[in-house]
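Backbone-to-sequence.
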């Protein structure tokens, strides 16, 4: 009974997104006028969800181009869950391989930042520590501790284009600066309180957060950061991360045998 129901449901979903029905019961439904109306409603709802989740991409390419592209994406990657808040996880990868998007090589990176905003927005609530909390630790103990990254923090280094500047301008509804320098940029997005905030991030800071997220102690994380950006001011970087709320806690690994 369960297998039969599951088969029907799978075939029904496939038919909603344009695939030929492989179940006779679904085939009978597809021929009814009401199914076409329902299919169009579901399809348009998926396109609307992409439009809501990728506002910077939408502003860059315009509504007509976006909705036509979204329709192709939805046909290839229909939603896998009822909630559409998370829909579009692989939309940046789709754009990277989408031939009409090739004249805008930065578009996949902008889409990635849009989706990082979604992830930061829906991440669990958590507190964060301050510079004062760090100052209470002895240096010899602190270097063996781990800075736990806030659960809402999302960051990325874009080596080939100023993706953050382009994304921020379109997210905030302003023009991209005329003097834009075409070089790599990093970005940090997080929700320390009720709203998602964002700011640029250096390659060293990105490496530091990568190491912290990998449970490295602070000494090891600092070495990785300086390898990527030898002239970075490590103290200023850590202070900045604490000030914006990117660090949730300081953790000391148990070294007891």
């Amino acid at each position: 009974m369960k297998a039969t129901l599951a088969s029907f449901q799978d075939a029904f979903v496939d038919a909603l997104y344009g695939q030929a029905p492989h179940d006779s019961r679904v085939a009978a439904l597809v021929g009814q006028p009401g199914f076409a109306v329902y299919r169009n409603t579901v399809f348009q709802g998926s396109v609307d969800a992409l439009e809501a989740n990728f506002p910077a991409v939408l502003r860059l390419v315009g509504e007509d181009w976006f909705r036509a592209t979204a329709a192709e994406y939805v046909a290839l990657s229909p939603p896998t869950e009822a909630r559409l808040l998370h829909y579009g996880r692989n939309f940046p990868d789709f754009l990277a391989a989408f031939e009409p998007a090739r004249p805008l090589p930065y578009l996949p990176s902008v889409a990635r930042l849009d989706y990082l905003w979604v992830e930061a927005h829906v991440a669990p609530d958590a507190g964060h520590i301050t510079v004062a909390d760090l100052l209470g630790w002895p240096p010899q103990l602190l270097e063996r501790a781990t800075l736990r990254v806030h659960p809402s923090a999302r960051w990325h280094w874009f080596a080939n284009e100023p993706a953050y500047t382009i994304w921020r301008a379109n997210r905030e509804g302003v023009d991209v600066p005329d003097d834009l320098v075409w070089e790599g940029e990093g970005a940090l997005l997080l929700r320390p309180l009720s709203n998602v905030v964002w700011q640029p991030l250096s390659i060293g800071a990105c490496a530091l957060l990568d190491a912290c997220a990998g449970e490295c102690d602070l000494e090891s994380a600092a070495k990785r950061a300086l390898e990527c950006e030898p002239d970075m001011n490590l103290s200023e970087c850590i202070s900045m991360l604490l000030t914006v709320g990117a660090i949730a806690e300081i953790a000391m690994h148990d070294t007891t045998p």
